[in-house]
Design a protein that fits this description.
The structure holds two protein chains of two kinds.
Chain A: H1 7-17, H2 22-34, H3 39-57, H4 62-99, H5 108-142, H6 147-159, H7 177-208, H8 215-243, H9 268-273, H10 275-293
Chain B: H1 5-17, H2 23-34, H3 40-53, E1 56-60, E2 73-77, H4 79-96
Helix pairs in contact in B: 1-2, 1-4
């Protein structure tokens, strides 16, 4: 006779069952308890059902749309952007700490630079959070049932560049090793947890909720995302050009990289990052319209 | 469209069990009849398919202590389901006429 599922093993079965609908979870887990199934047997049975259910979800078009327009591409951009932003923030902080003194704040130019940098950092962080929230919401709304698989894929894309650097090459002896280590190994994960994964999880939970977001709130989120994206669009493009090296920087007519007339072949990345925010707004408006028509 | 083999087994097991037809009991009936394990995944996805076709109705029953306080999914075969199962059975009988193993 097979060993009954022990309390220790049961949490693993319960965890796997959480991927099933509530009623099916009760029915399946109850059947396994009644059949005195062992932990291994229960995990295999539930796992098989979970795989069948997930596979059935992917017969429709919505999960594929979410996968190829949000989870994979935007997950990658978030990964590169978050690392680039973290390194840029840390580089400036490092300079201020190493070269600056408190007395410099009395100098108007230095003070203006500190305020400008602080504002840039805050706007960058807010943009990361806004993108992440709207991406989480859109993933969950586009495919309420396949959300877990989509979220996992997006998370893999975000973490996929862990260990790589953008502007801080490891092993380069000209770079202070403490700087390289801290920027890549400490600040980047902190940024990703609080400004990417946290907001994305919040957006996912909100997107999974049955209640509508409210059109005014949705529009406010969309407008905020558009404004923040407009403010950091050049930095976002820079993360992919300078940071990841997707293409060589392209100077403008003056032939100098880093000036205002530089070409911006990746300008469309900002538009792509806004697609989840626009989906949030249109989804909310459509939901409100259908409620009124009932 | 003709029932599938596993769909027939499930309908027949549910019809035999009557008011006691639910997931674990149907699974046990099928395993006893076939001598082969019946996976939970196959059972519940087939239940959904049969319900979509209108061959069965299902609903959640009361929780019981034997199931750790969890509800069971009860099954009832509809008239349409009985008709489909009967058609499958008659087709198997007709096609098996005169075949050596049908006499055993």
């Amino acid at each position: 006779m097979e060993r009954e599922v022990t309390p220790r093993g049961w949490w693993a079965v319960d965890l796997l069952c959480s991927l099933l609908e509530r009623e099916e979870r009760a029915a399946v887990c109850g059947d396994l308890v009644e059949a005195h199934a062992s932990t291994g047997r229960a995990l295999i049975e539930v796992g098989g059902l979970v795989v069948r259910r997930q596979a059935a979800l992917w017969l429709g078009w919505r999960p594929w749309l979410a996968l190829f327009t949000i989870a994979i591409p935007l997950g990658f951009v978030l990964s590169v952007a978050s690392r680039y932003f973290a390194e840029a923030i840390f580089a400036h902080l490092w300079l201020y700490v190493r070269l600056g003194e408190w007395s410099y704040l009395a100098v108007p130019g230095w003070r203006r630079d500190v305020i400008a940098m602080t504002t840039t950092f805050l706007v960058s962080c807010a943009a990361l959070a806004a993108w992440s929230w709207t991406i989480g919401f859109a993933l969950a709304r586009l495919s309420r049932q396949a959300w877990s698989t989509l979220a996992l894929i997006a998370l893999m894309m975000v973490l996929g560049t862990t260990g790589f650097t953008t502007t801080v090459p490891l092993g380069d002896r000209r770079i202070d090793p403490l700087f390289a280590l801290t920027a890549g190994s400490i600040l980047t994960p902190i940024l990703r947890v609080f400004l990417v994964m946290g907001p994305a999880w919040w957006g996912l939970r909100r997107g999974r909720a049955r209640t509508s977001l409210g059109s005014s709130r949705a529009l406010a989120i969309a407008v905020a995302a558009v404004a923040l994206t407009a403010l950091v669009s050049k930095t976002l493009e820079g993360s992919l050009v300078f940071g990841w090296g997707l293409m060589l920087p392209q100077p403008g007519p003056d032939g100098v990289v880093g000036t205002a007339d530089d070409l911006r072949p990746l300008w469309w990345i900002s538009v792509v990052m806004l697609w989840p925010a626009l989906y949030v707004a249109t989804n909310s408006i459509r939901g409100r319209a259908s409620q009124r028509s009932r | 469209m003709m029932l599938g083999e596993f769909e027939y087994l499930l309908l027949t097991a549910a019809a035999r069990l009557g008011d006691e037809a639910y997931g674990a009991a149907i699974r046990q009936e099928i395993e006893d009849a076939t001598g082969a394990p019946c996976s939970v995944g196959a059972l519940y996805t087939t239940l959904d398919r049969l319900e979509r076709k209108g061959f069965i109705t299902t609903w959640m029953g009361e929780p019981t202590p034997e199931r750790g306080g969890r509800q069971k999914r009860l099954v009832r075969v509809t008239a349409k389901g009985r008709h489909a199962a009967s058609a499958f059975y008659n087709a198997v009988i007709r096609v098996s006429r005169g075949v050596a193993w049908s006499a055993k």
